[in-house]
Predict the 3D structure of the following.
Amino acid sequence: MSVRTPEIPASARLGGAGSILLAASLWGTTGTVRALAPEGASPVSVGAARIVVGGLLLVLLASLVGRGAELRRLLSSRRARLLLAVGVICVAVYQTAFFAGVARTGVATGTVVTIGSAPAFAGLLSWLTGGDPLSRRWLAATAGAVLGCAALIGGGQEAGVEPLGVALALLSGLGYAVYATIASHLIVGGGGDQAVVAALFGGAGLLLLPVLLLGSSGWMLTGSGLLVAGYLGGVTTAVGYVLYARGLRGTPVAVATTLGLAEPAVAALLGLAVLGEDLGGVALVGLAGIGCSLLLLVLPERR
């Protein structure tokens, strides 16, 4: 499965990177909004609600804007159905494995391992599948952004390491990388942006529906619970992943996963501004490191 993006103008590549950065910025609001959820809303339940609501909205959106034919055409291909099945499982896995990993090894370690491993896995998958070559610029930017994330999230915190928790966080990072690789392959291969994400997240929503129904989902029946679930599903998932899919048309998947590291930077800034959280000196250095690394990746190279 080769995932090689076609040659496109620099302006289009910049636009694709902008769409992915905007998507990552929306994802970065997830933690702040989740903190405003009613009592009794467990992280796993909130995560499942996000995918279930988002998947339903993506399927409805694809139908309303005339992408139903694209979705049916996508599902008519046996190879595409196989890739979609793997992608659906990976979307569900990276959500649930992340929360399970964080519960075992802590927020700081679990988050750093997940978001730090995803670009590495995506780069490895790109190399294994004969996709876009990995440049020294990508390697430098990815290393800088991952180190920045580690400093940002772990700054001022004592990191705990629990082997099973770390393994689950790595599984989450791998699941995200495989999902992104499959989505990129289907989109670059001619599948419609919205049709691809509707199929992937609609299927993942069905997989996670039992998790939501059998868990502590009563919080969704409150006013604030409905707002939280609606925002997480509608904005961070439906809008966010439509933007991400659009960006994948002109952005190599390894670069896209690295650009996604803007998410923790946005989350940290919102935590500071909205929740009154403190950022220590190490965290601020990490924030600056992420910003510089993403600029290195986005700005065009001098010729």
User: Anything to note?
Assistant: The chain has one domain: 55-298. Residues 78-105 form the longest helix (28 residues). The CA atoms of residues 79 and 86 lie 11 Å apart. The chain has a mean pLDDT of 83.
